[in-house]
Amino acid sequence: MRWSQTLIPSLRNVPKDAEAVSHQLALRAGLIRQLASGVYSYLPLGFRVLLKIINIIREEMNRAGASEVLMPALHPAEIWKKSGRYETLGEDKISFRNRSGHEFVLGPTHEEIITELVGTNIKSFRDLPLNLFQIQNKFRDEARPRFGVIRTKEFIMKDAYSFDCNEQGLDVHYQKMSEAYHRIFERCGLAFQVVNADTGMMGGKMSQEFMVICPYGEDRVASSGSGYLASRDIAGRGNPGLQTPVSNSKCPEVFDTLNLRTIEEISHKFKIEPRQMIKTLIFMADDKPIAALVTGESEVNEGKLRKLIGAKTIRQAEAHEIREATGAPVGFAGPVGLKIPVYADWDVVGIADGVTGANERDKHLKNVTCGRDFTPTATGDIRFVKDGDLAPEGKGTLKLETSMEIGHIFKLGTRYSESIGAYFLDEKGERKPVIMGCYGIGVNRILAAAIEQHHDAKGIKWPAAIAPFAVEIITVNHADAKVFDAAEKIYHDLAAAGIEVLFDDRDERAGVKFNDADLIGIPKQIVIGERNLKDGKVEIKDRQTGSTELVDLSAIIPSL
């Protein structure tokens, strides 16, 4: 490919609205351009990288025994309502009504669609197992698209789905996909971690995320020196074994907090440390109200709370439900005198003479002590972990790092086969729901992650497997006939040898070409200048290491 015949609009300056390094360099190197918030075009270099990534994914999916399909991006809303996820999607879904008044959803994922497809085309255990995958555009109305292609409204995903007769079959597929993911990310040149994770909106009984440490990710990973590793969403901690300290008061006292509802407002007004406050949140667990207590600077982890209670479902209570349970509006709940079950985090046990809501408008209580003024129904680990928490196994402390998800694998079980209707007849002729697994990869995010992990002050340093080209030819003096002729011959020789080559044939200053070459990050640069050419040599630079060597014209291809 000749530079003059393609679109590579490189930029000298960093765009003002680009925070992430990958976003800055993708824009400067001419890989992407924004059309609207969270919506990007991929220019020739960027698209070539995507195609390299997609090819690696496709090869490894085929190697793992998956068959490729292509499903519609346009979904009838009824199928999302059938699975119960129409409401769960909330404002993230992009939906519309057509001219006939039928509602459609632009597909954010394809569990419902693949389940319906397979469910209508299998009859018995003889039709199983199956593993199908696709590479397709997905759509979500992200509230805050950020960091270039890391968080967008339209994105490319590989999603695979396995279908089995039993749990043993699912285990086999899950392991195969895990191994395929390791190969994919290793081939793409990424350093990654595999962490246990929350199943979230997808549902199912277990999942694992493939994460890269990245300051611009939306997730956090908790780890300890002894080897513990988990997503913050499900990470546990060790019991600190706190004992209630001696109270300096005889009983709680009411004080006025007119129009002060939040921890921050009360802390600022009365100079009270948030860790000395008891935050009381009302939830509906299996449609019954319960109270969850954490310290003022902590957040309740709904998954942990649900597990402690043993509930099937849990959600935050609405305003009218809070009033019915506490007798007060939102912002004034407290554990003293509550008639509903109260579940306290371990940290709350260590608070004496704390501050909490008084279950009365514009009123709070001070001098509240756990065990004396209220007794929890149960205590446990119900908050999100923090830096410095005791590790779950009691050895060492936890460290939190910001990370970006690039892949996620799930054991879905019968979550979708039962709701959508994918059944088969087993060996005994009994009707059974298919056992499913789901396996996703964010293609765009691999591009971003590769830039985050492979760059320097000058620009991108592409891993060879996903670089847009293998070699770039740079002429020092393009006007010199001998230099130009040598570059042309090398260009044609490389192309004839099947080597992907970009020829910077622009009539530009050498400095501009060198800067652009380092910016776009092609692994090998062949520099052709008058001085070396007189000796029958060219310079080959390795972009990853920065090393250079002089090579005879006859030995260029073997030297690459």
| Global mean pLDDT | 94
Major β-sheet profile: 9 strands, mixed
Distance between the termini: 18 Å
Please, what is the CATH homologous superfamily of the largest domain? Bira Bifunctional Protein, Domain 2
Radius of gyration: 29 Å
Principal-axes geometry comes out as globular
Approximate strand percentage = 25-35%
Total DSSP helices: 16
Named at the architecture level, the CATH assignment of the largest domain is 2-Layer Sandwich
Summing up helix and strand content along with how strands pair, one would put the structural category as: alpha+beta
Low-confidence stretches: none
Which CATH first-tier class of the largest domain would you pick?
Alpha Beta
> Helical proportion?
25-40%
CATH topology of the largest domain: BirA Bifunctional Protein, domain 2
Number of domains: 3
Number of strands: 31
